[in-house]
């Protein structure tokens, strides 16, 4: 495996740069906000504009942002004047991409309160209805491998819009499914199409940002996408108060249609034709092989995937652990689960606003892995009886302490991996997402291997996954050997 430098591609093309804002070419600034025309109603990126002579520059023009001598300089210094419009564009872009990444979790979690009603309505056993969740998750994992390379070949907008339209149609088909078997098939299609939002949102971030600014933007996305698992079951429960389970899918279809319209009119193409690469299945497989062959890239992918697996094991086991073992009511469980999600979001925002630009991304990532692993070991000791009889509160606090530092891990692994792949951001994003879903899907069933009467399997799986994540980070990425200012 290769170690240093971006991953080579058989037909590399230089990454297009944004047009200068003054008569001279402005140096690249990884901390600069995205250009103001990156989230507009224009369907395609216009051709690069010719540099404006210094004499023709208006006094109201945005001055070039100086490159700081140290990454922390741009964080502590006052922002240059004239960037208000760019900030507004950045907020709009964050909302759009956050909505795209939140749609698949909404599709999964908003449906959860309706599952007993689906079982009765379609006269099917609960195990069969559980397959509707498995089908949706499998579709999201496989769909990213398809959509990611497509976005590298045809640009971001076209595959995203096609995927969103298919998502809306598939969701409406779920709403009118007459049998459980058809519902499973439609949920698979819904997951395949919904994967477009996840994978292309990450690729768009890679197109627009680099360095610490990309990590900062990923942390901002967590503020939106992290809300989805919290509010989705609540929204689903309220929908069931006024309609049946089919109304949940109608609402999801409406959300998908709204996002499609916003993407159509407010999200510009971020991958110009000069940066795209053609080729069929063979070229796609060669690109994937080149990505996997990069040891450092693979290390970040595996570190993020096993961290996600530890999180997913908590999501799948916590309802039984908190309610069946420790006697929490459904309302108490919702509060504890929501607190964990808020913890991830808060730490993610601390990462983006305080650490990025002051602390190397690898150091923040290592800190997150270390803190989560220590909390996992503590939780394992608690539930195994090492400190005597344990109640709900200590276990819940240990889980919050385990989950919250992942706000340092997940945005930084994505940023570090994608920084190595400017030529194939879509394919790299697909590998990031698919690996996380697959590892999570394989590991999560292990939390119930010893039955539902003990929390030891959950904490063993969490500790094991985090130890493996640390091993992949240290063994593959070897941050101490790479000269990096990020």
Write the layout of secondary structure elements.
Blueprint: H1 73-76, H2 84-109, H3 115-121, H4 126-154, H5 157-175, H6 180-208, H7 211-225, H8 228-242, H9 245-266, H10 281-293, H11 295-325, H12 330-355, H13 361-383, H14 392-403, H15 406-419, H16 425-443, H17 456-477
Helix pairs in contact: 2-6, 2-7, 2-8, 2-9, 3-4, 4-5, 4-6, 4-16, 5-6, 5-9, 6-16, 7-12, 7-15, 11-15, 11-16, 11-17, 12-14, 12-15, 13-14, 13-15, 13-17
Characterization of the model:
With 486 residues, the protein is mainly α. The chain is 67% helix and 0% strand. It is built from 17 helices and no strands. The protein is globular. The chain starts with 72 loop residues before the first helix and ends in a 9-residue tail after the last helix. About 17% of the residues have low confidence.
As a percent range, the share of helical residues equals 55-70%
Q: How many strands in all?
A: 0
Discrete helix count: 17
Shape: globular
Strand and helix order: HHHHHHHHHHHHHHHHH
**Binned strand content:** under 5%
Largest sheet data: none
Q: Overall mean pLDDT score?
A: 79
Broad structural category: mainly alpha
Using only CA atoms, what is the Rg? 23 Å
Keywords:
486 residues; mainly alpha; globular
Short description:
This protein has helices at residues 73-76, 84-109, 115-121, 126-154, 157-175, 180-208, 211-225, 228-242, 245-266, 281-293, 295-325, 330-355, 361-383, 392-403, 406-419, 425-443, 456-477. It has 486 residues and is mostly helical. Helix 2 (84-109) runs antiparallel to helix 9 (245-266) and helix 11 (295-325) runs parallel beside helix 16 (425-443).
